[in-house]
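Exam revision sheet. Question 4 asks you to relate a sequence to its structure. Input first:
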Amino acid sequence: MNEVKVLDLNNAEVGKLKLPSQFKEDVRPDLIKRAFEAVMSNSRQPYGADPRAGKKYSARLTKRRRKYRGSYGKGISRVPRKILTRRGMQFNWVGAFAPGTVGGRRAFPPVAEKVWKVKINDKERRKAIRSALSASLNKEFASFRNHQVPSDFPFVVSDDFDKLSKTKDVISILNTLGFGDELKRSSRKKIRPGKGKLRGRPYKKAKGLLVVTGNDKSLVLKSAKNIPGIDVVFVKNLNAALLAPGGVPGRIALFTKGAVELIDKEALFV
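Answer key, C-alpha coordinates:
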Protein backbone atom coordinates (compact mmCIF):
# COMPACT_ATOMS: atom_id res chain seq x y z
CA MET A 1 0.00 0.00 0.00
CA ASN A 2 1.77 3.13 -1.29
CA GLU A 3 -1.05 5.68 -1.37
CA VAL A 4 -4.17 6.40 0.66
CA LYS A 5 -7.15 8.62 -0.03
CA VAL A 6 -7.47 12.00 1.66
CA LEU A 7 -11.08 12.68 2.71
CA ASP A 8 -12.64 15.97 3.70
CA LEU A 9 -15.16 16.35 6.52
CA ASN A 10 -18.01 15.42 4.17
CA ASN A 11 -16.42 12.04 3.33
CA ALA A 12 -15.52 13.23 -0.18
CA GLU A 13 -12.15 12.37 -1.68
CA VAL A 14 -9.98 15.47 -2.16
CA GLY A 15 -6.70 13.84 -3.16
CA LYS A 16 -4.17 11.10 -2.62
CA LEU A 17 -1.30 10.97 -0.15
CA LYS A 18 1.84 8.88 -0.50
CA LEU A 19 2.59 6.97 2.68
CA PRO A 20 6.12 7.30 4.11
CA SER A 21 8.30 4.25 4.66
CA GLN A 22 7.35 4.12 8.36
CA PHE A 23 3.98 2.64 7.34
CA LYS A 24 5.59 -0.14 5.26
CA GLU A 25 7.39 -1.96 8.08
CA ASP A 26 6.79 -5.68 8.56
CA VAL A 27 4.45 -6.29 11.51
CA ARG A 28 6.42 -7.83 14.39
CA PRO A 29 4.03 -8.79 17.24
CA ASP A 30 6.98 -9.88 19.40
CA LEU A 31 8.65 -6.46 19.24
CA ILE A 32 5.35 -4.65 19.74
CA LYS A 33 4.62 -6.73 22.84
CA ARG A 34 8.07 -5.97 24.26
CA ALA A 35 7.75 -2.22 23.64
CA PHE A 36 4.25 -2.20 25.14
CA GLU A 37 5.47 -3.94 28.30
CA ALA A 38 8.30 -1.41 28.62
CA VAL A 39 5.83 1.51 28.44
CA MET A 40 3.51 -0.05 31.01
CA SER A 41 6.32 -1.06 33.38
CA ASN A 42 7.77 2.45 33.33
CA SER A 43 4.39 3.87 34.33
CA ARG A 44 4.11 1.66 37.44
CA GLN A 45 4.17 3.48 40.76
CA PRO A 46 6.63 1.82 43.18
CA TYR A 47 5.10 0.62 46.43
CA GLY A 48 6.25 -1.24 49.51
CA ALA A 49 5.91 -1.70 53.24
CA ASP A 50 7.50 0.52 55.88
CA PRO A 51 10.83 -1.23 56.71
CA ARG A 52 10.00 -0.90 60.45
CA ALA A 53 6.38 -2.07 60.18
CA GLY A 54 5.67 -4.68 62.87
CA LYS A 55 9.12 -4.23 64.43
CA LYS A 56 8.36 -1.36 66.80
CA TYR A 57 7.66 -3.49 69.90
CA SER A 58 10.21 -4.61 72.46
CA ALA A 59 9.43 -8.32 72.23
CA ARG A 60 12.77 -9.95 73.00
CA LEU A 61 12.63 -12.84 75.47
CA THR A 62 15.45 -14.90 76.92
CA LYS A 63 15.33 -18.68 76.76
CA ARG A 64 17.66 -19.27 79.78
CA ARG A 65 16.62 -20.89 83.09
CA ARG A 66 15.58 -18.59 85.93
CA LYS A 67 16.29 -15.47 83.88
CA TYR A 68 14.08 -12.43 84.28
CA ARG A 69 11.72 -11.91 81.36
CA GLY A 70 12.23 -15.42 80.06
CA SER A 71 9.81 -17.93 78.59
CA TYR A 72 11.78 -20.99 79.75
CA GLY A 73 9.88 -23.18 82.21
CA LYS A 74 6.57 -21.36 81.73
CA GLY A 75 4.97 -24.06 79.59
CA ILE A 76 4.55 -21.66 76.66
CA SER A 77 5.89 -21.49 73.12
CA ARG A 78 9.05 -19.65 72.14
CA VAL A 79 7.18 -16.90 70.23
CA PRO A 80 8.48 -13.35 70.90
CA ARG A 81 6.11 -11.53 73.26
CA LYS A 82 5.51 -7.99 74.39
CA ILE A 83 4.68 -7.36 78.04
CA LEU A 84 1.39 -5.67 78.83
CA THR A 85 1.56 -5.82 82.66
CA ARG A 86 3.75 -7.66 85.17
CA ARG A 87 3.97 -8.48 88.87
CA GLY A 88 7.38 -9.62 89.93
CA MET A 89 8.32 -12.57 87.70
CA GLN A 90 4.75 -13.06 86.48
CA PHE A 91 3.96 -11.44 83.12
CA ASN A 92 0.83 -10.70 81.17
CA TRP A 93 2.16 -10.79 77.64
CA VAL A 94 1.02 -11.40 74.05
CA GLY A 95 2.83 -12.49 70.92
CA ALA A 96 4.42 -9.69 68.88
CA PHE A 97 7.04 -8.97 66.20
CA ALA A 98 6.96 -12.41 64.57
CA PRO A 99 4.90 -13.16 61.44
CA GLY A 100 1.60 -14.74 62.45
CA THR A 101 1.18 -12.57 65.54
CA VAL A 102 -1.22 -9.65 65.86
CA GLY A 103 0.61 -6.50 64.75
CA GLY A 104 3.71 -8.48 63.79
CA ARG A 105 5.83 -7.99 60.69
CA ARG A 106 4.99 -9.61 57.37
CA ALA A 107 7.15 -12.51 56.31
CA PHE A 108 8.00 -11.29 52.80
CA PRO A 109 6.46 -7.83 52.23
CA PRO A 110 6.80 -5.90 48.96
CA VAL A 111 9.84 -3.63 49.15
CA ALA A 112 9.87 -0.05 47.88
CA GLU A 113 13.40 -0.54 46.49
CA LYS A 114 12.16 -2.90 43.76
CA VAL A 115 13.05 -1.53 40.30
CA TRP A 116 9.99 -1.60 38.03
CA LYS A 117 11.54 0.19 35.05
CA VAL A 118 12.27 -1.90 31.96
CA LYS A 119 14.87 -0.74 29.46
CA ILE A 120 14.46 -1.24 25.71
CA ASN A 121 16.91 -0.39 22.94
CA ASP A 122 16.03 2.81 21.04
CA LYS A 123 16.24 1.11 17.64
CA GLU A 124 14.07 -1.72 18.92
CA ARG A 125 11.48 0.72 20.32
CA ARG A 126 11.34 2.73 17.10
CA LYS A 127 11.02 -0.42 15.00
CA ALA A 128 8.15 -1.56 17.23
CA ILE A 129 6.35 1.76 16.67
CA ARG A 130 6.86 1.53 12.89
CA SER A 131 5.54 -2.01 13.00
CA ALA A 132 2.47 -0.90 14.96
CA LEU A 133 1.92 1.98 12.51
CA SER A 134 1.77 -0.52 9.64
CA ALA A 135 -0.78 -2.62 11.52
CA SER A 136 -2.92 0.43 12.35
CA LEU A 137 -3.79 0.92 8.65
CA ASN A 138 -4.30 -2.79 7.96
CA LYS A 139 -7.88 -4.05 7.79
CA GLU A 140 -6.99 -7.63 8.73
CA PHE A 141 -5.23 -6.66 11.95
CA ALA A 142 -8.02 -4.22 12.85
CA SER A 143 -10.67 -6.92 12.32
CA PHE A 144 -8.66 -9.30 14.52
CA ARG A 145 -9.05 -6.75 17.35
CA ASN A 146 -12.83 -6.67 16.65
CA HIS A 147 -12.82 -3.10 15.34
CA GLN A 148 -15.76 -2.13 13.13
CA VAL A 149 -13.79 -0.99 10.07
CA PRO A 150 -15.30 1.41 7.47
CA SER A 151 -15.63 -0.14 4.01
CA ASP A 152 -13.18 2.30 2.35
CA PHE A 153 -10.53 2.15 5.10
CA PRO A 154 -7.60 2.99 5.14
CA PHE A 155 -7.74 6.73 4.54
CA VAL A 156 -6.56 9.97 6.16
CA VAL A 157 -8.64 13.03 6.92
CA SER A 158 -7.91 16.61 5.91
CA ASP A 159 -6.42 19.08 8.38
CA ASP A 160 -9.82 20.78 8.77
CA PHE A 161 -10.44 18.04 11.34
CA ASP A 162 -8.04 19.89 13.69
CA LYS A 163 -10.40 22.88 13.82
CA LEU A 164 -13.32 21.02 15.44
CA SER A 165 -13.81 22.57 18.87
CA LYS A 166 -17.08 20.84 19.86
CA THR A 167 -17.35 17.21 20.91
CA LYS A 168 -20.73 16.82 19.19
CA ASP A 169 -19.14 18.02 15.93
CA VAL A 170 -16.32 15.47 16.25
CA ILE A 171 -18.86 12.66 16.79
CA SER A 172 -20.90 13.85 13.81
CA ILE A 173 -17.85 13.91 11.50
CA LEU A 174 -16.67 10.48 12.68
CA ASN A 175 -20.13 9.10 11.88
CA THR A 176 -19.93 10.72 8.44
CA LEU A 177 -16.52 9.10 7.84
CA GLY A 178 -17.98 5.66 8.61
CA PHE A 179 -16.89 5.16 12.22
CA GLY A 180 -20.45 5.06 13.64
CA ASP A 181 -20.40 1.31 14.38
CA GLU A 182 -16.95 1.63 15.93
CA LEU A 183 -18.12 4.45 18.23
CA LYS A 184 -21.07 2.33 19.30
CA ARG A 185 -18.80 -0.66 20.01
CA SER A 186 -16.28 1.36 22.02
CA SER A 187 -18.97 3.05 24.13
CA ARG A 188 -19.90 -0.21 25.86
CA LYS A 189 -19.02 -0.55 29.53
CA LYS A 190 -19.31 -3.94 31.23
CA ILE A 191 -18.95 -4.91 34.88
CA ARG A 192 -15.73 -6.84 35.34
CA PRO A 193 -16.07 -10.43 36.54
CA GLY A 194 -14.09 -11.55 39.57
CA LYS A 195 -12.23 -9.81 42.37
CA GLY A 196 -11.13 -6.86 40.24
CA LYS A 197 -14.39 -5.12 41.19
CA LEU A 198 -13.08 -4.87 44.76
CA ARG A 199 -9.70 -3.56 43.64
CA GLY A 200 -10.56 -0.27 42.02
CA ARG A 201 -11.28 -1.51 38.49
CA PRO A 202 -15.02 -2.37 38.44
CA TYR A 203 -15.59 -1.84 34.70
CA LYS A 204 -14.19 -3.17 31.45
CA LYS A 205 -14.18 -0.60 28.65
CA ALA A 206 -13.39 -1.20 24.99
CA LYS A 207 -10.49 0.53 23.24
CA GLY A 208 -11.76 2.29 20.14
CA LEU A 209 -10.40 4.66 17.52
CA LEU A 210 -7.00 6.35 17.86
CA VAL A 211 -6.97 9.88 16.41
CA VAL A 212 -3.50 11.16 15.48
CA THR A 213 -2.98 14.84 14.71
CA GLY A 214 0.05 16.68 13.36
CA ASN A 215 -0.64 19.89 15.29
CA ASP A 216 0.17 20.04 18.99
CA LYS A 217 -2.23 23.02 19.31
CA SER A 218 -5.08 21.17 17.58
CA LEU A 219 -8.53 21.85 19.05
CA VAL A 220 -9.48 18.21 18.58
CA LEU A 221 -6.95 17.20 21.27
CA LYS A 222 -9.44 18.60 23.77
CA SER A 223 -12.78 18.20 21.99
CA ALA A 224 -12.39 14.46 21.29
CA LYS A 225 -10.67 13.31 24.46
CA ASN A 226 -13.91 12.63 26.37
CA ILE A 227 -15.51 10.34 23.77
CA PRO A 228 -15.65 6.79 25.24
CA GLY A 229 -12.92 4.51 23.91
CA ILE A 230 -11.20 7.19 21.83
CA ASP A 231 -7.64 8.42 22.41
CA VAL A 232 -6.33 11.60 20.75
CA VAL A 233 -2.59 12.15 20.48
CA PHE A 234 -0.04 14.45 18.86
CA VAL A 235 1.96 12.37 16.40
CA LYS A 236 5.30 12.88 18.20
CA ASN A 237 3.81 11.37 21.37
CA LEU A 238 2.88 8.04 19.78
CA ASN A 239 4.03 4.91 21.58
CA ALA A 240 3.39 1.17 21.52
CA ALA A 241 0.75 1.33 24.26
CA LEU A 242 -1.41 3.74 22.22
CA LEU A 243 -0.97 1.95 18.89
CA ALA A 244 -1.28 -1.58 20.28
CA PRO A 245 -3.22 -1.74 23.59
CA GLY A 246 -2.46 -4.95 25.43
CA GLY A 247 0.50 -5.48 23.11
CA VAL A 248 -1.85 -6.63 20.32
CA PRO A 249 -1.21 -4.78 17.01
CA GLY A 250 -3.99 -3.45 14.81
CA ARG A 251 -5.74 -0.65 16.71
CA ILE A 252 -7.68 1.28 14.08
CA ALA A 253 -6.23 4.78 13.64
CA LEU A 254 -7.39 7.96 11.92
CA PHE A 255 -4.47 10.18 10.88
CA THR A 256 -4.81 13.75 9.75
CA LYS A 257 -2.96 14.68 6.58
CA GLY A 258 -0.60 16.89 8.60
CA ALA A 259 0.32 14.00 10.91
CA VAL A 260 1.41 11.76 8.03
CA GLU A 261 3.34 14.62 6.42
CA LEU A 262 5.12 15.35 9.73
CA ILE A 263 6.14 11.69 10.07
CA ASP A 264 7.69 11.92 6.59
CA LYS A 265 9.22 15.39 6.94
CA GLU A 266 10.93 14.83 10.31
CA ALA A 267 11.64 11.13 9.73
CA LEU A 268 9.96 10.20 13.00
CA PHE A 269 10.56 6.74 14.53
CA VAL A 270 13.44 5.97 12.12
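Marking note for examiners. Strands lie at 3-7, 13-18, 81-87, 90-95, 155-157, 189-191, 203-205, 210-213, 231-234, 253-255.
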